Every structure is written in structure tokens, then in C-alpha cells.
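Subject: design request, 215 residues
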């Protein structure tokens, strides 16, 4: 479902940032407070939402992937940096503003660490971090879906928005990390079992040697 909502969400964000669509009252207030930062955030973040999957699909074409990756990283950095003042200037409740601010920080941190990883040649870590970064970005889509459902069921707006501003990016991020954590735990279990069996085998071998000496 998120894949079908990704492009519309990105295009709407860009249209709002470019002034091609009317802003709802709460966003209009943010625009008045941040007349340059807010449109920049909407345009850069909208572009990032579109470019992230395109860049991922181009990973088997190194030159194209690198070129798209640089543009995507630039959009994410601009979108993440501008997300911070936009979150603080929001008309939302404190809990929601904090969630949006944290999302911007985490998004920015993940792209910086992911770029650093690929510059070191650590492709596996780069790929894992980019998946995590994309999961955080998907929060923009999930939040809109959650709020649409909340409106349909007449749920309280502020409470739902406050929870959604945190959950809609933290849950996807956590889900992307679960396979890695499970694999790490399984690897540790195998290593521990191997060590335990090696010690048992070594003890048996020593006992057999002692038995031969006695005989």
C-alpha cells in the first residue's frame, strides 16, 4: 500500500512547496513563519521520496546508481535539515512536534552514516543504512494514511497525530532492523554451540588419552 501512496504523497508535497496547491491552515502558518525553509523542505523531501526507490532499483548499474545516489543524498540532507525548524514551527501539539523533529534528526543521521560507509567501501553497511533511511522516510506516507483513517473513524486528531508522528517512522525502522538482529542472535547461538561442543570434544579426547595411559 505504501508503494502506491509514495508518488502521490511526494507530488503533493512538491506542489505545496511550489505553491501549486492551496495549503491547509496549519501549514499556511508554518509558511508564514518560514517562508523559505518550509517550501525548501517540501520540495526537497518530495524529491527524496521519489528518488529513494529509483536509486535503489538502479543499484545494479553502478554509474547510474552513484549519480542518482548523490542527488538523493543531497535531497535527504536538505529535507532533513529543513525538517528541524519546520517541526518546531508546526501548529501541532508538543508530542507531535517532538516526533517530527526526531524523525528529521534520525533521517539526517542515517544518510550521513550511509554515505560515510560507502566512501569506506563498506557496501553491506551502506545498503543496510539506506534501507533504514528509506524506512524513516516512509513515515511521511504512513502518517498521512493513519490520519486519513483517524478522520474516517472520528478519532481525536491531536492524540492520533501525536502518536503517529512517532510510530509512523519508528515502526518501519524497527521492522527493517529485526532480520539483522535475528541473524546476529542466531550467529551468536551457533558460535556458542560450536564452542560448547568443541570444549566437550576436547574433554572427551583428553579423557581418552588418560584412559590409554592407564591401560
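Subject: RE: design request

Done. Sequence follows.
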Amino acid at each position: 500500500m505504501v508503494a502506491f501512496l509514495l508518488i502521490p504523497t511526494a507530488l503533493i508535497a512538491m506542489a505545496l512547496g511550489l505553491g501549486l496547491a492551496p495549503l491547509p491552515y496549519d501549514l499556511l502558518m508554518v509558511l508564514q513563519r518560514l517562508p523559505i525553509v518550509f517550501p525548501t523542505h517540501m520540495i526537497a523531501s518530495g524529491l527524496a521520496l521519489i528518488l529513494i526507490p529509483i536509486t535503489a532499483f538502479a543499484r545494479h548499474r553502478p554509474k547510474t546508481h552513484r549519480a542518482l545516489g548523490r542527488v538523493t543524498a543531497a535531497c535527504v540532507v536538505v529535507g532533513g535539515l529543513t525538517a528541524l525548524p519546520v517541526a518546531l514551527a508546526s501548529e501541532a501539539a508538543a508530542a507531535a512536534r517532538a516526533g517530527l523533529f526526531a524523525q528529521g534528526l534520525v533521517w539526517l543521521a542515517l544518510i550521513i552514516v550511509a554515505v560515510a560507509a560507502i566512501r569506506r567501501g563498506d557496501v553491506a553497511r551502506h545498503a543496510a543504512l539506506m534501507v533504514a533511511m528509506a524506512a524513516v522516510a516512509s513515515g511521511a506516507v504512513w502518517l498521512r494514511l493513519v490520519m486519513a483513517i483517524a478522520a474516517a473513524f472520528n478519532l481525536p486528531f491531536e492524540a492520533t497525530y501525536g502518536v503517529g508522528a512517532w510510530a509512523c517512522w519508528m515502526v518501519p525502522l524497527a521492522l527493517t532492523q529485526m532480520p539483522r538482529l535475528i541473524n546476529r542472535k542466531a550467529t551468536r547461538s551457533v558460535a556458542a554451540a560450536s564452542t560448547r561442543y568443541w570444549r566437550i570434544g576436547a574433554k572427551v579426547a583428553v579423557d581418552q588419552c588418560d584412559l590409554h595411559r592407564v591401560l
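The CA atoms of residues 135 and 173 lie 5 Å apart.
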